[in-house]
Amino acid sequence: MTEAQKPGAIYPPAGGPNEEQVVACTRAFIVGDYGQARKLADGVLARGQATQEEKSYAGEVVSRIKMDPLALGIGVACIGLFFLILALTL
């Protein structure tokens, strides 16, 4: 299976006014620097001169990076349970 055939893969648009920022966002996403990727994607979304393809790509990057609310809720519940157990055993 070639990279072009991978299901669910996203590819940056080429030739837009924010091409350098989109490429930098892609590189940050690939190497796992999600904070920088989110910052660059938010920058593309905030610019008025971005093409629709660039905005769509940046929105997809942000949606793939965002925190899962269920995982966050479970994590908070586990921390709360940990402190409850500590309080009851001491």
Description:
By secondary structure, the chain is mostly helical. The chain is built from 4 helices and no strands. It has helices spanning 19-31, 34-46, 52-65, 69-89.
CA-CA gap between termini: 58 Å
Helix/strand class: mainly alpha
Give the integer mean of the pLDDT values: 86
- Low-confidence parts, pLDDT < 50 over ≥5 residues? none
Number of domains: 1
Fraction in helix:
55-70%
User: What is the helix tally?
Assistant: 4
Main sheet attributes: strand count, strand direction, barrel closure: none
What are the secondary-structure elements, in order, as H or E? HHHH
**Any idea what the radius of gyration is?**
19 Å
Number of strand segments = 0
Specify the overall morphology: elongated
Assess the beta-strand content as a share of residues. under 5%
Task: Present the secondary structure layout.
Layout: H1 19-31, H2 34-46, H3 52-65, H4 69-89
Helix pairs in contact: 1-2, 1-3, 2-3
Features:
90 residues, mainly alpha
Task: Summarize the entry for a quick read.
The chain is an all-alpha fold and 90 residues long. The protein is 68% helix and 0% strand. Helix 1 packs antiparallel against helix 2 and helix 2 (34-46) runs antiparallel to helix 3.
